[in-house]
Amino acid sequence: MIRIEDLCVDLPGFCLKDINLSIERGEFFVLLGPTGAGKTLLLETIAGLIPTKRGKIYIKGVDVTNLPPERRSIGIVYQDYALFPHLTVLENVKYGLHFYKIDKAKERLNQLLDRLRLRPLIKRLPVNLSGGEKQRVALARALIVNPSVLLLDEPLSALDPNFKEDVGRELKKLHQEMNVTFLMVTHDFTDVLSLATRCAVINQGKIEQVGEVVEIFQRPRSSFVANFVGARNIFCGRLINEDTHIWIDTGKIKVEVADAQIKNKEKIYFIIRPEDIIVSKKPLHSSARNCYLCKIIKIINRGAVIYLTADIGERITALITKASFEEMNIKKGDSVYFTFKASAVHSMGSGLNI
Amino acid sequence: MIEKRKVFLGVTIISGILVIGFILLPLINMFTSPSWENLKMAIKDTEVLKSIWLSIYTAGIASIISFLVGTPFAYLLARRNFFGKNFIESVVDIPMVIPHPVVGIAILSVVGRNYWFGQILSKIGIRIMGSVPGIIVVLTFVGIPFYINTVKDGFESISSRLENVSRSLGASIFSTFFRITFPLAWRSILVGIIMCSARAISEFGAVVVIAYHPMTAPVMIYERFEAYGLAYSQPVAVWLTLVCLILFLFLRILSAPREKEG
Questions:
Q1: Which residue in chain B is spatially nearest to A142 when comparing CA positions?
Q2: Is B215 helix (H, G, I), strand (E, B) or coil?
Q3: Beta carbons of A70 and B159 less than 8 Å apart
Q4: B210-257 pLDDT, tens per residue?
Q5: What confidence category does residue A230 fall into, taking pLDDT thresholds of 50, 70 and 90?
Q6: How does DSSP classify residue B181?
Q7: N or C: which terminus of chain B carries fewer CB neighbours within 10 A?
Q8: Residue A285's domain spans which residues?
Q9: CB within 8 Å: B164 and A84
Q10: Domain membership flag for residue A96
Q11: Domains along chain B with CATH numbers
């Protein structure tokens, strides 16, 4: 679908070096990298907005390297949505229809307005929309011309964490329904886990590693990738629904979860944030459903906070403050209790195809 | 602490009163000095009317020229970075910083009969010295930097991402400019026209070198002041100022942001 060969871009202060990338038709591909890595630059180069110095870009087998943006059949959704402020929601969504001849355009417009719940908003100007509404308008506007590829520039970064998961799910669903290749840029590895099938890690204008998400996580090929995707406490397991309780079984431990929103026996990735784990010397009498007696195998002192790693069947890391650490007088080899609530277990969906 | 704050606030307010007084006092005095009879007489004087009209329409044409040539150039300066851009921007600013009679003399040196450009103009029958086209050339020269700088700022304030999205949706670079950039920048363009015509209408030093006749309003005010004194020049000055204020107020109202648009 998209093939990039030896692409080089040289702009003052920014560059891309020898980018080689291949993205399959219908794939949800993520470009992952820190701020300033060149992710948005690569996105805009694919869209034809940045001139290339060397290399080729193919979309659907056609060399588009020298084609202007309007002839590449690419939709783009920016982080700030870039809605046309002087046009209403409906005029924004219909904008592309002035230039593209789309079969059953009216039908498609109605379908998108319904699908993205925009009908009540059609007469509003962008200034009167919430962040989520703006994003839905931007998605509808990009999808109406039936692009071959939809480029998404950090669509989840501007959203608050609670809302982020909902929007992520919405994007994933939309991708499945629309049958359009999605290429998303993000700096957050958790976005990749929940959405992508494959991803590329980019740093300082160079691609460090491309592959299946699991492969990148499990076998990082450089220290940069290892550090960058080094999210703690990520496990893979199978969901078990038992009466009133939902568990994830990794084969080594069983963790109770609050709400996984996926089907029984499905394999998923899940994360327990280190700061959500309560460390104590005695068992806690609380509503937290997951409690493990374990031995401390590693202590990393980061000044104000301390990371404690223990073995509960899987290696798991907790974060405590310096004050609690000194008060409990924890040493390597000590037995402690790691306790966390079922709601502290964040499932990352089933997007990994494992 | 509170005392210091009060002193600081006091200084800011007193400065404001001084500036406003400095601007308004001479104007109010000028408006109230001439008698109603003198004002009526001045406005019935066809020479006065002609000179005010000449000032308005030459400034208007200078603004239209600035709009036609300055808009694409302002867009280029706002959107592209290129070698020597700072130099080019400085060149645009030159008419604002050089003394006005020097502007007149500089233009004269190019359009005079001793220079090839002046000879070509003369051959095709265009007279610059002492003519309306001459006045328009001078007013465009002094007004266009104000237009370009205002409109450039306007274009810069429009995110280039809007244009990127428009292009990705199939719009050519021209369609994008006319459907997205221009409608979003029109307010800056109007303000640019106000700035340019305000500067042009008030020009005296350069005009007087190129065209003493036909007489624009500032030249006439000066002539009457020189020949007959303050009392005789004041009514013309009042009418010119009034016409300018009404015109600019009208354009300001047009360019004020609507509540709906945020």
A1: B169
A2: coil
A3: no
A4: 999 899 999 999 999 999 998 889 999 999 999 888 888 887 787 777
A5: low
A6: I
A7: N
A8: 234-347
A9: no
A10: yes
A11: 41-255 (1.10.3720.10)
